Amino acid sequence: MSETTNAAEVAAPHRYTAALAADIEARWQDFWEAEGTYEAPNPKGDLAGDPTAVARPKKFIMDMFPYPSGAGLHVGHPLGFIATDVYARYQRMTGHNVLHTLGFDAFGLPAEQYAVQTGTHPRVSTEANIVNMRRQLRQLGLGHDPRRSIETIDPAYYKWTQWIFLQIFNSWYDPEADAARPIDTLVAQFEASTRPTPDGRPWAELSPIERANVLGEYRLAYASDAPVNWCPGLGTVLANEEVTADGRSERGNYPVFKAKLRQWNMRITAYADRLLKDLDQLDWPEAIKLQQRNWIGRSEGARVDFPVGDEKITVFTTRQDTLFGATYMVLAPEHPLIAGADNGTGSIVPDAWPEGTHDVWTGGHATPAEAVAAYRKQAASKSDVERQAEAKDKTGVFTGVYATNPVSGEQVPVFIADYVLMGYGTGAIMAVPAHDTRDFAFARAFELPMRCVVEPSDGRDTDPSTWDDAFASYDAKIVNSSGGTISLDGLGVTEAKAKITEWLAAQGIGEGTVNFRLRDWLFSRQRYWGEPFPIVYDEDGVAHALPESMLPLELPEVEDYSPRTFDADDADTQPETPLSRNEDWVNVELDLGDGVKRYRRETNTMPNWAGSCWYEMRYLDPSNPDKLVDPDVEQYWMGPREGQPHGGVDLYVGGAEHAVLHLLYARFWSKVLFDLGHVSSAEPFHKLYNQGMIQAYVYRDARGIAVPAAEVEEHEGGVFYYEGGKVSRLLGKMGKSLKNAVTPDEICAEYGADTLRLYEMAMGPLDVSRPWDTRAVVGQYRLLQRLWRNVVDEASGEVTVVDTEPDEAALRALHKAIDGVTQDMANLRFNTAIAKVTELNNHLTKTGGPIPRTVAEQLVLLIAPLAPHIAEELWRKLGHTGTVVHADFPVADPAYVVDETVTCVVQIKGKVKARLEVAPSISEADLEATALAEPAVVAALNGAGIRKVIVRAPKLVNIVPA
After folding, report:
1. What does pLDDT average to over the chain?
2. What homologous superfamily is domain 37-170+268-292+523-537+599-693 in, according to CATH?
């Protein structure tokens, strides 16, 4: 401490300093905790409380789940947490019963990887991380209801995650009801023969295995052998959304391959239409809605059957009007007609090439089987994203068979190529190369015929062999499309689609249908640190749900937490899960209602998304041992109401990076629970707000290695040095690995939590990314010091306000600030709210005298949501015994909000000749008369006549001389 600083503190012992802030903040945090200040009462149950509070309008405000990282928080993490806290505090002060809490999404790969490296059980490290994060969050003064906080790793919590899985497993989607229904209702239909079994036999004649297989085709949670994204480097499979655009794992950046494994899936595709339609009723950013719409990918078209011997290939197309132009077909390499046999060939692949097969079609292989097997292996090394990328060279191979075009009767060759995916449509396409760019490129590469069936409107002729690319248009006439009993010639695209669709249905070879890009959700992970599936298998491999009485099924202790990983480039590997090595846990004897039998447990675990699919519901009723959530409690906090037809959380704040994964999954689970009658809200989150990111400068040396930002020196000309060497600077993310993280602990120690809160909210609009600058934090620190001095004498510690009426200037400044801050708070514009509070505080500082008590009190209330600790301290010093948290937010007096006068500009020939101070409510006639009588205007006109006077009351008069 310098001598100057020491002398200042001696002269002003009650000055607002970091030390005083620390004392104030710790005391009020203890007070809030002891008094239960932030406890939000429920209408009933264990958390029922003050009925007058429940009678107020409610607000349910949420942050996206944080993961308890071992590195703790840096200053970028709490941006959204502080914002929701400010908003929640404002809502409490405006008469709302506010539910605001925070839990931890604590299952997942980082803790498991740490356990593998250190031998520490994931629960031990995760719980230690949670303790540290709770400390850091408490230090920020966040007003969370601590009774409602949850952790996904708590067996009392994941009991209900497992219970929800069983609700989904024991349900099917009834298209007639357009909703999920219990699987028993489907069984009843089979038993009553109102729904036929797949092969027509009575339900009673099917074996238990056959019945299980039939129901598996309907269940919303089902196990299947399907192509998956296999990542040998991680030892687990990944959902499509967890694979990057270049075909690598989002976590770890390992190669991802296609493999066929038996995995659990969620039939989210059954809800595609509802997930799409209900977006319209949500108050979400349009960019997020667009991402979900694109991901769901609804398209209308037709299914068409192409005969192949005794088999048929079914395609989905949105351009059924171009059927006469289909000159070949392409199957995905994983198509069941190709991948049915162990040797890589299936039922339609012949033993030899048919006569006249082009050399370019065979890939240099002696037989179709060899060609298909080799190409399938090549395709397995690519991700779906890589396969869909626009590559210059198209690859594929002829299968050796021809299909029949159902409208023209022509024989068309059938290829396999990696640009067709099994996961979209039917895994097969009819190729119309004249009118599709990718098909055009493929046809050129393999010397395939093209036929123009959509009349070009760009001047080219109708011979595709002369074209440089395909011609695609929805606004053209159909040509060359007549044969048999159908002709589309001369029709527009829309008319042709309708006609051919009707014809296909009449012939029994197709029908109009809707397709979606959305795929079923891969729900299995080959990890240890996740929720165990409440599923066991009998000796025949039939899956059985555990009864609710056996939940939670807890994770067993294991010695080795790591899944078996492999060489990252070795696609010919299979997963081995950590749980599979625990034989005593895997093999059990249970009585599931028909006597004690031996079963084998599922050894995969649920993905890390499971716990966050429904956590908003558990916040409502966290200690209920008997129900997921009490229906009355759920209805109160999340039920439908005016403006929120599907219900949901009133405000949900988090990063835009969760646009598809978490948000789509949570919407799906909510809809299933709604259909089954467990909740009244069909959507989890009514209003979504995406906060921006706090960025920081990353400094790298000549090797490209990040160096500690705190040790970099800036020299003249903006040149940066670290340990004598020049380094580069680039704005990017903040993080431990980038050596540029600033912790909230550091800022709180130097300035106090209220200063940190103000700075993060003042940096810019909440939804915009902004750079962190520690040097700028002091500006908000000085605002709080000025606020303190306006109420408290720094020498004596006594309150300096006076019990006198404020003058008109003070009242106008006060009520304008109240009006502006109120609007800003309601619309999450916290940066401009702080600017208005600062302006008012500066106005009061400049008066030089004591501040009237009424003005001081309302100033404290204005800043209370933003800087709650200092507000509590000043509120108490001003003589109030209750907490400022539940005080009424100030209300502006309209009489003082409107300016007493406004400045009106008077122009002649566009040049300003006078400025008038006039009443805001002045009429156009009075303003015109006043302007024309103004001496400066009279002199400027110098007797000239007036052709026109344009009046825009109260701010402009424009005079046009004759």
Report:
1. 93
2. HUPs (3.40.50.620)
